[in-house]
Amino acid sequence: MAEINLYFIFIASIGFDLLIGDPKFIIHPVQIIGIYIKQITNFFIHNFKKNKRILFWGGLFIALSTIATSFVIGKIIELMFIQSKSNLIFGILIFLGLSSCLASKSLILSVKEISNLINDNITDQKTEQIVKEKVQRIVSRDVSTASLEHLLRSSIESLTENSVDGIFGPLFWIFIGTVFIKFSIFLPGPLSLGFSYKAISTLDSMIGYKYDHYRYLGFFSAKIEDCSTFLPSRIVLLTLPLVSSKIKKYISVIKKSYSDGIKYDSPNSGISEAIFAYISNVKLGGENKYNDEIIEKPIINSNGNICSKEKINIICQLILRLQILWIITFTIIFFKI
């Protein structure tokens, strides 16, 4: 019975994230994880910045300690909930914890807020600066000198890539946890796997870079994130056409998306960007600036339309539709097992 209650808490947490998002009055787990990662990363860089080997193995310690701690906290709360026969307080902790693993509303709102500020013929420099600041918060590239079209492209690329990291990745692993715990309460559950994936995602976003000290310190974090997001990104590739008008061209769209997506260095971000690009018929990729260096990313959907506010709205609708499809599918699988 507790396992079924856990599943319904999972479904309720999805709805809460879609409607409310992250409550302002609660410290987000990512903030706590981020503080730990930042402190221990600064320790290694400050004391061993010239020793690549220590940075390399230190990065493994940072990754494993962060993920293990997140997992254990989630597992303890799960065990307390089950052993207390679905105690309300532990149920609320799981509900809020699972909701914090998802970022549907915050991700969609942040990008829509940017698109709403951009007018076709924007001349207000103050508004343009505000847009650049908001875009800079969601991307790692330098957009200080970017055109409005580039700002829209950056927003769409962030939205399509982070839809997996912030929505479908955690949804996948939380569901796997709800299935595991049906067989044994000592197997990884929804909260322990959800917290673990969130820790992995945070590690990658904070230290998973290929420059300076992070090349060594963030190596393991980036690889672990690649592995944990591999399956969710492929499932998004296979299921997104099912909730779109391109369902009649299912095989063709998947082949084109996969062909363009694997050109990226990341085994996952290119795939997720590509399938959204082909479904919404938008062109992505091109010139980007990182630390005063211009990097040319592979073009995705070269015959697609330029990025626009309308394309952002279409992609946001696709994300919501796909979530509904996943929830229905998960529910059928859960009660059939």
TrEMBL record:
User: Its Gene Ontology biological processes?
Assistant: cobalamin biosynthetic process
Give GO cellular component annotations, separated by semicolons: plasma membrane
Q: Which GO terms describe its molecular function?
A: ABC-type vitamin B12 transporter activity; threonine-phosphate decarboxylase activity
Q: In which pathway does it act?
A: Cofactor biosynthesis; adenosylcobalamin biosynthesis
Q: Where are the transmembrane segments?
A: 54-76, 88-108, 167-187, 318-335
Which subcellular locations apply to this protein?
Cell membrane
Does this UniProt record's set of keywords contain Glycoprotein? no
**How is this protein situated with respect to the membrane?**
Multi-pass membrane protein
Its main subcellular localisation, reduced to a broad class, is membrane
Q: Keywords, A to Z?
A: Cell membrane, Cobalamin biosynthesis, Membrane, Transmembrane, Transmembrane helix
Instruction: Return the InterPro entries for the record.
Output: Cobalamin_biosynth_CobD/CbiB
Q: Which family does it belong to?
A: Belongs to the CobD/CbiB family.
Sum up the protein's function in the record's words: Converts cobyric acid to cobinamide by the addition of aminopropanol on the F carboxylic group.
Could you identify this protein by its name?
Cobalamin biosynthesis protein CobD
Tell me which species this is from: Prochlorococcus marinus subsp. pastoris (strain CCMP1986 / NIES-2087 / MED4)
Name of the gene = cobD
